[in-house]
């Protein structure tokens, strides 16, 4: 059964955090808006990524913090209560029910159509509903693709028969496997290795390259590697997976490495990257190649589409595969759509009201390992590659008075990269327990292009770890 065609000012395909933020902004601009979702409203972040992964990680990090403190160590000698941690994780995901998120859409007067949405020509979207019907939608002003990404798997013979874990399985598993092999060296790989090791699994981390977290300062990956090994994770570099097979439907997984080595596990997680979720959303009907990343300008308007009605925000445009950056893009895109719909000027200058400028120079990220890694802006290598004249300043975080409050064995490091020509920060990296809470101050400094001389007047409270800012500036001055 097909519903009567419906017309809105804006159609949003994908009701994850990005689509929700974009819809919120277009609705606030007075534009009628509908979102189309084939799974749960709230998307990957709420049910299979950010929220459940951090629910799994927080007990592990809290336990590590406690074990560093004299007077508490004897009280926390036992292992984590894995069933209790998993139960709390389930609460964080609302037990994979989206009633609350649907209620929020209703509260901001955004309509919801459940089903698989596909573009069907300019400003047209056809939605196949769960019941098998079709809902046809027309947009007066814009269609926004906010479909995100899916976990990438290697094109390896027989991999489907192995039923490997992806990030979704790793964050929603109902019990800890006795042995878990993790393939990859990025954020998902190290976070899930941290979580499941703490929850009782024997974890082997198979990394193709020579280090972890290759998109941040090298010392960050080195410190995380050291900590993972101390926790009991078997970290192997130069480990190229050549084959994978499972003994029966639920038996042992055997992983063959180049060179002949083999690893056995009960489950194997492939955390080797993400692929755009654009293979079946009708891109070919508007002259675009299906299955690829969508190229956009700084207002998230898709390039190469006549009429400028198509937008893409979040992971799907490959600018910054992070929930907070996607939400930021959604806000910027929603504001730009609203301005264009009303015939108002679009403020597309750098740091303007309608552009996602921060995607280029001020992207923050926290890796929730022990120690935590927090970084924003350019690394020293990236700044050098960009031709910037810089000074790199490092400081031992353990020497900051506030670090001693975390325990006697605090290990951490801070780095800031200074643009000598403009006297502003290009990037900042912190590694150490609790450093995620330092990151926003660094993000403000980088995004705001605060002169280093002005930062001297931002006085950090004593005794907090934030006093590292003073120490970095003192080191910079020499």
From TrEMBL:
<keyword id="KW-0274">FAD</keyword>
<feature type="binding site">
    <location>
        <position position="315"/>
    </location>
    <ligand>
        <name>FAD</name>
    </ligand>
</feature>
<dbReference type="InterPro" id="IPR036188">
    <property type="entry name" value="FAD/NAD-bd_sf"/>
</dbReference>
<dbReference type="Pfam" id="PF02852">
    <property type="entry name" value="Pyr_redox_dim"/>
</dbReference>
<feature type="domain" description="Pyridine nucleotide-disulphide oxidoreductase dimerisation">
    <location>
        <begin position="363"/>
        <end position="469"/>
    </location>
</feature>
<dbReference type="InterPro" id="IPR050151">
    <property type="entry name" value="Class-I_Pyr_Nuc-Dis_Oxidored"/>
</dbReference>
<dbReference type="InterPro" id="IPR001100">
    <property type="entry name" value="Pyr_nuc-diS_OxRdtase"/>
</dbReference>
<feature type="binding site">
    <location>
        <position position="117"/>
    </location>
    <ligand>
        <name>FAD</name>
    </ligand>
</feature>
<keyword id="KW-0547">Nucleotide-binding</keyword>
<dbReference type="InterPro" id="IPR016156">
    <property type="entry name" value="FAD/NAD-linked_Rdtase_dimer_sf"/>
</dbReference>
<feature type="binding site">
    <location>
        <position position="54"/>
    </location>
    <ligand>
        <name>FAD</name>
    </ligand>
</feature>
<dbReference type="InterPro" id="IPR004099">
    <property type="entry name" value="Pyr_nucl-diS_OxRdtase_dimer"/>
</dbReference>
<dbReference type="GO" id="GO:0006103">
    <property type="term" value="P:2-oxoglutarate metabolic process"/>
</dbReference>
<feature type="binding site">
    <location>
        <position position="273"/>
    </location>
    <ligand>
        <name>NAD(+)</name>
    </ligand>
</feature>
<comment type="similarity">
    <text>Belongs to the class-I pyridine nucleotide-disulfide oxidoreductase family.</text>
</comment>
<feature type="disulfide bond" description="Redox-active">
    <location>
        <begin position="45"/>
        <end position="50"/>
    </location>
</feature>
<feature type="binding site">
    <location>
        <begin position="184"/>
        <end position="191"/>
    </location>
    <ligand>
        <name>NAD(+)</name>
    </ligand>
</feature>
<dbReference type="GO" id="GO:0050660">
    <property type="term" value="F:flavin adenine dinucleotide binding"/>
</dbReference>
<dbReference type="InterPro" id="IPR023753">
    <property type="entry name" value="FAD/NAD-binding_dom"/>
</dbReference>
<dbReference type="GO" id="GO:0004148">
    <property type="term" value="F:dihydrolipoyl dehydrogenase (NADH) activity"/>
</dbReference>
<keyword id="KW-0285">Flavoprotein</keyword>
<keyword id="KW-0520">NAD</keyword>
<keyword id="KW-0560">Oxidoreductase</keyword>
<dbReference type="Pfam" id="PF07992">
    <property type="entry name" value="Pyr_redox_2"/>
</dbReference>
<dbReference type="GO" id="GO:0016152">
    <property type="term" value="F:mercury (II) reductase (NADP+) activity"/>
</dbReference>
<protein>
    <submittedName>
        <fullName>Mercuric reductase</fullName>
        <ecNumber>1.16.1.1</ecNumber>
    </submittedName>
</protein>
<feature type="domain" description="FAD/NAD(P)-binding">
    <location>
        <begin position="8"/>
        <end position="326"/>
    </location>
</feature>
């Amino acid at each position: 059964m097909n519903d009567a065609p419906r017309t809105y000012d804006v159609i949003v395909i994908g009701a994850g955090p990005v689509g929700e933020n974009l819809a919120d902004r277009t609705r606030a601009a007075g534009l009628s808006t509908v979102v189309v979702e084939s799974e749960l409203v709230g998307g990957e972040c709420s049910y299979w990524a950010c929220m459940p992964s951090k629910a799994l990680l927080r007990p592990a990090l809290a336990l590590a913090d406690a074990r560093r403190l004299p007077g508490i160590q004897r009280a926390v000698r036992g292992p984590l209560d894995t069933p209790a941690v998993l139960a709390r994780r389930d609460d964080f995901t609302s037990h994979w029910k989206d009633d609350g998120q649907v209620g929020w859409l209703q509260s901001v007067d955004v309509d919801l159509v459940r089903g698989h949405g596909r573009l069907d020509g300019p400003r047209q979207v056809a939605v196949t509903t769960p019941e098998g019907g079709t809902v046809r939608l027309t947009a007066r002003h814009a269609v926004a693709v906010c479909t995100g990404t899916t976990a990438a798997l290697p094109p390896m013979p027989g991999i489907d028969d192995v039923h490997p874990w992806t990030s979704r399985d790793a964050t929603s598993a109902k019990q800890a496997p006795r042995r878990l092999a993790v393939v990859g060296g990025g954020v998902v790989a190290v976070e899930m290795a941290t979580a499941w090791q703490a929850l009782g699994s024997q974890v082997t981390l198979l990394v193709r390259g020579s280090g972890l977290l290759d998109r941040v300062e090298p010392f960050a990956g080195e410190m995380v590697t050291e900590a993972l090994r101390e926790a009991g994770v078997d970290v192997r570099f130069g480990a190229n997976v050549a084959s994978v097979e499972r003994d029966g439907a639920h038996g042992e997984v055997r992983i063959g490495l180049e060179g002949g080595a083999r690893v056995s596990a009960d489950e194997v997680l492939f955390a080797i990257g993400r692929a755009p979720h654009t293979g079946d959303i009708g891109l070919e009907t508007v002259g675009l190649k299906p299955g690829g990343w969508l190229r956009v300008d700084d207002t998230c308007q898709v390039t190469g589409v006549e009429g400028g009605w198509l937008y893409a925000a979040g992971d799907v445009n490959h600018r910054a595969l992070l929930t907070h950056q996607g939400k930021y893009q959604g806000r910027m895109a929603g504001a730009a759509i609203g301005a264009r719909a009303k015939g108002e000027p679009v403020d597309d200058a750098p740091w303007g009201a309608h552009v996602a400028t921060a995607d280029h120079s001020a992207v923050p990220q926290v890796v929730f390992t022990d120690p935590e890694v927090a970084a924003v802006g350019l690394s020293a290598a990236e700044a050098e590659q960009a031709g910037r004249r810089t000074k790199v300043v490092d400081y031992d975080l353990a020497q900051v008075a506030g670090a001693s409050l975390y325990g006697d064995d605090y290990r951490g490091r801070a780095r800031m990269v200074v643009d000598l020509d403009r006297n502003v920060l290009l990037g900042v990296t912190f590694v150490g327990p609790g450093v995620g809470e330092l990151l926003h101050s660094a993000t403000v400094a980088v995004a705001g292009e605060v002169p280093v001389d002005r930062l001297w007047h931002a006085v950090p409270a004593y005794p907090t770890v934030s006093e590292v800012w003073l120490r970095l500036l003192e080191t910079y001055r020499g």
